[in-house]
Amino acid sequence: MTEVRVPTLGESVTEATVATWFKKPGDTVAVDEMLCELETDKVTVEVPSPVAGTLSDIVANEGDTVGVDALLANISEGDAGSDTAPKAKEAAAEAPKASGGASESVDVMVPTLGESVSEATVSTWFKKVGDSVQQDEMLCELETDKVSVEVPAPASGTLTEIIAAEGSTVEAGGKLAVMSSGDAPAAAPADTQYSTPPAGNGGAGKDIKDGPAAEKAMAEAGISRDAVTGTGKDGRATKADVAAAVAAAKSAPAPAAAAAAPRAPVSADDASREERVKMTRLRQTIARRLKDAQNTAAILTTYNEVDMTECMALRKEYKDLFEKKHGVRLGFMSFFTKACCHALKEVPEVNAEIDGTDIVYKNFVHMGIAAGTPQGLVVPVIRDADQMSFAEIEKAIAEKGKRARDGKLSMAEMQGGTFTISNGGVYGSLMSSPILNPPQSGILGMHKIQDRPMVINGEIKIRPMMYLALSYDHRIVDGKGAVTFLVRVKEALEDPRRLLMDL
Fold first, then answer.
1. Is 451 inside a domain boundary?
2. Range of the structural domain that residue 44 is part of
3. Rounded CA gap, 102 and 93, in Å?
4. Which of 33, 103, 266, 353 could form a disulfide with 180 if both were Cys (CB 3.0 to 4.6 A apart)?
């Protein structure tokens, strides 16, 4: 007999409420199959089966409050359980099982997602139940806050069960699917592929039952379910969601109730021509971080313009020789990166960040280069850019840019930046105000190069000009420092020889 106990619930969390039992006494269960769901004040916790066997009895019923390590149920081990899903037995009654017991069950698990990333969304399944797969063939794609992660098949065989459907939210180390290695056929037909309710948001029209703790909290607060946004499994409301809804209702002014509607009225004809698409996790993260930047930092932007004549002439003269020797094209980004590194040494507060009541000055430059991708804006980081040559910078930018477009960037490659350059000129932007990339205190916006008439030594001449914009956090960077920084960048670009002389 194996005991099923309450797992560790998290820091400072000592008890939970049994929200839902997915199994009943007498049911057969497989290893790691979900038995029940617990609900704490902050999160929803799923409890998997530690062994394969039969659920003997349930000690803690739905609605019961249990502490950490409390006994939830007992499982008797034996032939009743198997490594594959219990529904395989039901399928066996309808379809003869080929190959006998020659196949072996293989779990497909969520890989490591990166530093500080604990969950992801299943975006696409490339295979369906019953499909044959080769080892290392892509099974599905996961989407985290910043990158996409492809999950390969751990072995050759047949996909017998999909546990996490598209749209499901999964945790690092969680189970995605089950395969049978070898030539064994699928253990379950397509219409029985889900042995447990998939995690994530329920589909339209799906009846989701909230946990008893949340229902009790809503009853006590006198708040309707429509006013609560559920963040638990399948969109269930938790006690924390109810508390947040109550707090929002108290803080919101009464007249604002009429403005709570997210959209203006839409006619039936217009509604039929609309398309509603769920925001990707990356887009949600971009939206949240940009709004956090506006809410937190005192963002101000200063502008200047730079005459690109000398940079363009230098590039034209040496670009063929540069590419022949270094194997990479000479672009303008290396000039701007070098100019910014040079200016950051003179105005170090633009390369610093605020940590509480402290200012953290960085004696190095990890340059973020914003890159647009089909999935959204990402900012790969070139580490120690201030120690790199023109060729090293160009190679790093080319390599990071390709990996960004292919969705191959790792979390580590987008963390730790101290300053960012964003080039809106590649899209034709003539002037813009870039927004900070927290916790950084500065970002330089580049724009398109456009011929304009300029007065040079009393004469009007046509020059290739570019507007520059520096957005900075006014809490740490004063106007004098911001203007000085932008002037130094301008001077270095208009006379690139200054970079060689460290002037």
1. yes
2. 1-81
3. 19
4. 103
* pLDDT of 195 over the 70 cut: no
User: In degrees rounded to 5, what are phi and psi of residue 184?
Assistant: -65, 145
Q: Bridge partners of 162? A: 177
Residue 301 lies in a domain: yes
Reported as a single tens digit per residue, the pLDDT across 397-450 is: 988 888 888 777 777 788 889 999 998 888 888 899 998 888 899 999 999 999
Give the residue numbers marked as catalytic.
Answer: 474, 478
* Boundary (domain end) residue, out of 81, 103, 125: 81
- CATH number, domain of 13, equals 2.40.50.100
How far apart (Å, rounded) are the C-alpha atoms in residues 19 and 216? 12
Going from the C-alpha of 110 to that of each of 139, 152, 164, 204, 237, the distances in angstroms are 11, 10, 10, 26, 25
Question: pLDDT at position 122, please?
Answer: 85
What does the block give as tokens for 128? 């369906």
> Closest Cα to residue 375, out of 343, 350, 409, 347?
409
Burial zone of 339 (CB within 10 Å; 0-12 exposed, 13-18 middle, 19+ buried): buried
Question: Of 22, 52, 81, which marks where a domain is finished?
Answer: 81
Q: Is 254 exposed, middle or buried (0-12, 13-18, 19+ CB in 10 A)?
A: exposed
Let me know if residue 408 belongs to a domain.
yes
Domain count, the chain: 2
Q: Is residue 397 part of a domain?
A: yes
